[in-house]
Amino acid sequence: MTSPACRPGGWPEDAPPRSALFSLNPEGHSGDDLEDLASYFRRLSEDHRMLPWTLAFRSVVPLIGSGSPGWRAKMACYCYGLATSGVTELADSWAKALNHATGRNDLQLHTLVPLKAVVPPTKLLSPIERFCPICYAQDESSERPKYNRLLWAIDCVAACPLHCVQLQAVDKSNRNNDNPFWLHRQGKRANASSFWLPGISTVNGRSLASDVGKPAKEEDVQFARLVADLVDDLHHHPHEFHDVGAPTNFLRYATEVLFAGNLSHFAQHLGVSKGALHGWTSGKTRPSLPRLALIAFCCGAAISDVILGNKVMLFKRPAPARPSRLCVRKRKGARRPRNELQQEFEQIVESGRASSAREAADLLDVSTKFLRSLSPALNQRLVEAGQERVRRTARELEDLKFDEFRKSFDAIVAKQEKPVRRRIQQDVFERTGLSFRYKQAGIFLERVRCPAGVDASSGAGGRKSGGRRRRRQENRPAMD
């Protein structure tokens, strides 16, 4: 990455060197709306009309380092996750490589790398991708590309500080329980292969801006605001955070001002153990970002004040309510006579009130293990019925996919175009949102080609037919 970028022919000598990739401007300007690096790279690949993996494999990974083809392929696969926006050396190397390729120098600010010297890296990066639907809706209304905020990638942030709604997981928000096949599209994309873009469902291609946001708790909104302010302070005053140790000065100051030097009362106010607070106060351990946000919230200060040890005005604020502990559910159905339970079990199976053993156990208020011992034959009937229902649903889904595949095939043939697999899959996805596995699409293509009179071997690459040679031999005149 230290080699200078080359200038093309006719490039002015006094002009800066041309970048290898488009110098796309990141979105956002503050801690609550700044774009993360993963979202930036996905939009960059769309501008180049390339898949993110292809662009990463060809243009970004060679700038990071040299290795085997397997290593390069593995490095390129990180473009689809949040690791490139994290706090590790991987995110730092990706930011430096993209800076070199695009001619920019600020892409490190779109990762969590600046937080590495301030807070421990544990519990920092979210394990899943999340979003705020109202932010996406505002992106669409303002005619700017939808993008993921860096704040959403922080694990302890559970709400959007701008719209006071909960952050939703991408893998859960794009499923429709009422219609799992999603045949009624609410929004279309220009290209069905742009499923990787931010704000677009990877399952059915719809816009995630159509989701309804759930109101968030006031504590979650305040925590998100504290973290956003910390990101702003790190970007605007990075020199203030150099060589910053554990927040011992602030904790001692808060203990004296708010709790008259009683460390136990301070720990009880925060809802943590006295040993943990003593470790933070003595400097032996460092609190994670969620704990720093908790300290700042309960003391009425900013996270930057806690880290820097600023002596600001403080006030007590109660800690957020802790979730109740999980407990084992106590079932009382087993106390009833077994004959009574068996008769009721038979009625449930005959009437069809339960479609699985789990539902029958819940109706009888017993466990599934007790249900198997109560009547193995009836339990087996429920299990077989559930398996048959799963097989029937799979057959219905396969028939539905094949019907849509045939419709797209016939439409492409009617346009006098070659019905290749890629065109058919793209047409089906744009119409219905259905996707196919590679092997499944090949089987469907063979099934629809035979009745349509299309040669099945014409589109298969790598297979040579000897029919033309045989016809030449048959038409060759006999040598008498």
Automatic annotation (TrEMBL):
It holds the Pfam family TniQ. It comes from Burkholderia territorii. InterPro entries: Cro/C1-type_HTH (IPR001387), TniQ (IPR009492). Residues 454-480 are annotated as: Disordered. Residues 266-306 form the HTH cro/C1-type domain. This is HTH cro/C1-type domain-containing protein.
